[in-house]
């Protein structure tokens, strides 16, 4: 590392003495790209600045939440107003009902929602609810998919687990892992086989509608619909993990875009506008089991906290309100489509085999080892993708003022305020990075 990042290096050395690995979430440690993690001092619109004063166009956007970019005036004003009226009461507020109403209006397949403080809590609670509703123990997840760090889900997970090459985590008991069955993403036959063998014991299948924790892998035609059919046939629930895709791939999430009908949906990120939030939602007969309406216990001191609710409401209200006939969401999606097309063109121009994906305001691209390869699962991602080449590109882009996800096995995000200037700078930087 040159002294270009000297201040981040100093800060990181100190942080590692205080905090395990110097970070509060593993993927931030840059193990996927090597070098020292950049300490970020502030963000404004599409930009962040690191501790050494370098400005970057930010495509991580806090791993998805910042659909409006950093420090959007509507979000700043909403949080400032609310915090001056009190940050938390541990009691119901109209803000929770307002955000619930907004979420249910945007995702009409949902009938009730419970707010929690993270995506992990959302998926953990949704699966407890699925087990309570069905009276069954087993769950099915897909290798390379990441649903947060609840014990039962740290089995062949994606995101930071994949980046760190941890097949699963110590501390997860064998008995817990035994109730988690896994299959490769897009392998519907394998799921049908699991149901043929264990169908009466399976409470739920949990799936990311786009596998964005192993990079950016789209569902093959019929895969998600097939999961809906096989779960219904065996009386198991379909849990759609839209923590990342919710309100990012379309105003109604992947379920709105593709007409999916899950029993439960997990949400997070965008609905908190950058503050801690998660949610699980679904059909009323299932949600009615959740305490205190029903016996399935789940609770949280700061669940539905006024600041996150205010930030989430400001984000959703702003993102989907047209200005001169165009919504900020549409602007972000158009920018993401233009970025993806530009990345594809540059890969072809440079003769570098890339697999580029984009849906709505999310995108991703793989450096393939061989031209013509196609990644549709984690097993293929491990075999066909070149993370080292991505790592070199990551740093080359940093040097040109563009901050991508510090791992080949993550997705990218565009905001409503990434404009033509940012896209041009990004694609110019990528042209140079690919040539290097
Ligand atoms: P959190 O507990 O991190 O709020 O959400 C967990 C989660 C659940 N479901 C999906 C589909 C997710 O992508 C996530 C978290 N996403 C990662 C980024 N790939 C969070 C980044 C991090 O771990 O620091």
Description:
The chain has about 425 residues and is of the alpha/beta class. The protein folds into two domains: about 180 residues, Alpha-Beta Complex (Aspartate Aminotransferase, domain 1); about 250 residues, Type I PLP-dependent aspartate aminotransferase-like (Major domain) (Aspartate Aminotransferase, domain 2), CATH 3.40.640.10. The chain has a seven-stranded mixed sheet, sandwiched between helices. A four-stranded mixed sheet has the order 1-2-3-13. The longest helix is centred in the C-terminal third of the chain and has 23 residues. Bound molecules: ligand KE4. Ligand KE4 binds next to α4 and α5.
Short description:
By secondary structure, the protein is α/β, with parallel strands linked by helices.
List keywords for this structure.
436 residues, alpha/beta, Aspartate Aminotransferase, domain 1, Aspartate Aminotransferase, domain 2, 2 domains, seven-stranded mixed β-sheet, four-stranded mixed β-sheet, 15 helices, globular, binds ligand KE4
